[in-house]
Design brief:
Layout lengths: L10 H10 L19 H7 L1 H5 L16 H13 L3 E5 L2 H17 L4 E5 L4 H10 L2 E5 L3 E2 L4 E2 L4 H9 L7 E4 L6 E2 L2 H10 L4 E4 L23 E4 L1 H4 L7 E5 L5 H15 L6 H16 L1 H21 L3 E2 L11 E2 L3 E5 L7 H12 L5 E2 L3 E5 L8 H10 L26 H6 L2 E5 L12 E4 L3 E4 L7 H12 L4 E3 L8 E5 L2
Parallel strand pairs: 2-3, 2-6, 6-8, 8-9
Antiparallel strand pairs: 1-10, 4-5, 7-12, 9-10, 11-13, 13-15, 14-15, 16-20, 17-18, 17-19
Length: 490
């Protein structure tokens, strides 16, 4: 058994709790003043203790002054993840992605090229627009059997880097939404050989490295910047995240730029509750080896029961791609199309009739996530799944997965298209025109259409199909059905 690290506490969270326990006369923000007279409904909903811990920033003994509890908390996080430095974020991993784009821009200024995995999260594309970067896209592995995108191969990264003039950075995504892990060590070697830093969006791998049966984290494999969406599978509150800086060849150049990017993307009133949750999540991951192991075992029990029943399939059992070097054991992806079901409808039905919430669905799959330390009722989930019958809206209407559309041809820089005068026209009429917006089927938030790309009939059909599916949503669409699109005027 791996030894459990010594519990070094959660210094920032403890400082917030100590502050809340004081006998205070609050004549400052937040305006609720933690008082039953000014905020009775808030206290009734959250409880007095939570409201009292919602404190203002810049307090001595909490986050102000040398060696304050917040700085100690971030130092402990850097040590836990193996980072040179770690920043706590309260605007989610989306903030980290935008920060990374701004950092790449600061390395060379606007118009600079960066190599970007085309299945990047939409928030990094937002960052490209803000920073005025020119993306050179590298194509990820596409699993045509299920219509899902995974990671990037070192071969593809090397190809795009060789064809790109003076790139300033590389951005890749791993693990995928389905838990497939790319070869970060090889990708970092390729990027560093080209003389550029590599940023890894490890949003779905905040827990990596905290148990011997989990994949290693990206920092340990040579990444220079790593995005950690800590609330996803790290245990912190929603909208909290971390950005880690590796102690590699670019650390000296990147560190001041990350700090500058933080200052123009952060809230000037960061939530003490979110920051405390990051501190506590780190503590929990570091000391929770046994609990994490129990979650891994529970996830395997789900997979085993599904396999033994022979009705549905386990998606990760079909992976035989050399680009996938590991799999997150806390992700359970179930092929329901094999039994004649529509994945979106199954997810909605389980929520509606059984109170069972899975993370995402595609037309052919549902994906369950187990937070590290969580042991769900395996029988409740598996039995409910097998009680479903593939009739009516639950039935799959086709024999093939909805394929991911081919991306449209870039015609303008994303920033130029986004800021250009635009007109709104019918989706069919927009085919062949230049998109002014980023549109991404959610989940997982991978843009299917970017500002500056030519709109294709294939992309329009895909987005409208997703929008019409149970629980379907297209981020960036100006109407829920994707009946209309914004295009560059000229």
């Amino acid at each position: 058994m791996t030894p459990v690290p010594r519990d070094r506490g959660a210094p920032y969270a403890q400082a917030v709790a100590d502050n809340a326990a004081q006998d205070q006369l609050r004549l400052n923000v937040p305006g609720h003043s933690a008082d039953a007279g000014s905020a009775p409904e808030l206290i009734e909903f959250f409880g007095e203790d939570t409201v009292r811990k919602d404190i203002s920033p810049l307090l001595g003994g909490v986050d102000l002054g040398p060696d304050n509890p917040l700085s100690r908390a971030t130092a402990l996080a850097a040590e836990a993840w193996g980072a040179r430095r770690t920043w706590f974020l309260t605007n989610g991993a989306s903030q980290a992605n935008r920060m990374g784009a701004l950092v790449f821009g600061a390395l060379g200024g606007p118009l600079q090229q960066v190599v970007v995995q085309r299945s990047a999260h939409s928030s990094f594309i937002d960052g490209i627009i803000l920073a005025g970067l020119t993306p050179a896209f590298a194509q990820p592995l596409i699993d045509d059997r299920y219509g899902i995108a995974h990671g990037l191969s070192p071969r593809e990264l090397a190809r795009v880097l060789a064809a790109t003039n003076d790139p300033k950075g590389v951005y890749v995504v791993t693990p995928s939404y389905f838990g497939a892990v790319a070869d970060v060590a090889a990708l970092a070697e390729v990027a560093h050989a080209a003389g550029v830093p590599i940023m890894v969006d490890e949003a779905w791998g905040a827990h990596f490295g905290f148990h011997e049966d989990l994949p290693a984290n990206a920092l340990s494999r040579g990444a220079d910047l790593v995005v950690s969406s800590t609330h996803k599978l790290g245990g912190s509150l929603t909208q909290s995240a971390m950005l880690h800086l590796g102690d590699g060849p670019f650390g000296d150049a990147l560190e001041p730029l990350v700090q500058r990017a933080l200052m123009i993307t952060m809230s000037t009133s960061p939530s003490s509750l979110l920051l405390s949750s990051l501190d506590i999540a780190r503590q929990s991951l570091q000391t929770g080896w046994d609990r994490i192991g129990a979650s891994i075992a529970a996830a395997e029990r789900i997979r085993t029961r599904v396999r033994d029943a022979g009705v549905f399939g386990i998606v990760s059992d079909t992976w035989d791609f050399e680009e996938i070097v590991a799999t997150d054991p806390l992700r359970v992806s179930i092929d329901v199309r094999r039994a004649g079901f529509n994945g979106h409808a199954v997810r909605e039905e389980l929520m509606r009739t059984e109170g069972i919430y899975t993370e995402i669905s595609t037309d052919s799959c549902i994906v369950a996530f187990l937070g590290p330390g969580y042991e769900p009722d395996v029988d409740r989930f598996v039995d409910a799944l097998h009680r479903l019958e593939p009739v009516g809206r639950l039935a799959y209407a086709d024999t093939h997965a909805l394929p991911l559309p081919h991306f449209g041809r870039p015609s303008m820089r994303p920033r130029d298209a986004w800021f250009s005068p635009a007109v709104t026209i019918g989706a069919r009429e927009a085919v062949g025109r230049v998109s002014a917006d980023t549109l991404a089927a959610y989940p997982p938030g991978i843009p299917n259409l970017l500002p500056g790309e030519i709109i294709t009939a294939e992309v329009v059909d895909f987005l409208r199909t997703v929008a019409a599916s149970p629980g379907g949503h297209v981020r960036g669409a100006i109407d829920p059905a994707v009946d209309r699109l914004r295009v560059v005027e000229n």
